[in-house]
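Per reviewer request, we include the raw input and output of the structure prediction for the construct analysed in the revised manuscript.
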Amino acid sequence: MKELDITVVNKILNEIVEYEMAGVVRYAHSSLMISGPFRIPIVQFLQEQANESLTHALQAGEFITGFDGHPSQKISQIKENHNHSIQQILQESLEHEQHAIALYKKLLEEVADASVMLEEYARGQIGQEEQHALEIKKMLRDFAQ
């Protein structure tokens, strides 16, 4: 087994904290901007995503403090294009999920063969984010027709 580099792991986990906290803001804001006949289920979905992003940020923060690190109070930059169509919001949500997958894969690559706990955590998060991306892709299908 390779040695776990706590400094690098905490740096990646802080990237995750910052990105997931940006997800809270992104999804909450997006849920407020939805209008039209499909508003209610989409708002519910986006608010669930906001809550889940907070949970994910807190999980990463718990690992950081467990490794004697300090969780970041920053959030990643959120692009605002002022186009709040359902299609645009869902497309931005898909891009957000895909970037989250990349962050968790970065963590997985770093902790592979060094920590079973962190490997399992990263794999679980990747699976969840991939599932969200799949759901969003399904929602976007109507716009492709």
